[in-house]
Design goal:
mainly alpha; two-stranded parallel ribbon; 4 helices; 2 strands
Length: about 90
Amino acid sequence: MGKPHIQLIKADQGYRGVEGNMKELHPQLSLETVKSNFGTTDFLPLVGRWVVERTISWFTGTRRMMRNYEKYLHTATNMAVTCMVAFMLRYFR
């Protein structure tokens, strides 16, 4: 099985102007800008964004992931994977 490829990028309204440039550089990618729901009284989690923000908050809860202690990128990547495996084991226990 090959490596998975990114096909969709979700961004906030600040990236609205780069859609044309991105299509020229990377035609296989599509950019979806998500309108925020600020200014409303209702809490409406944005699709996909809630998962990313929750995962980042899990990372910041571990001391090892708070700072970049690693010298090499592959070590930092493996620490991130190890951290997520620990969370998944705790979650699905």
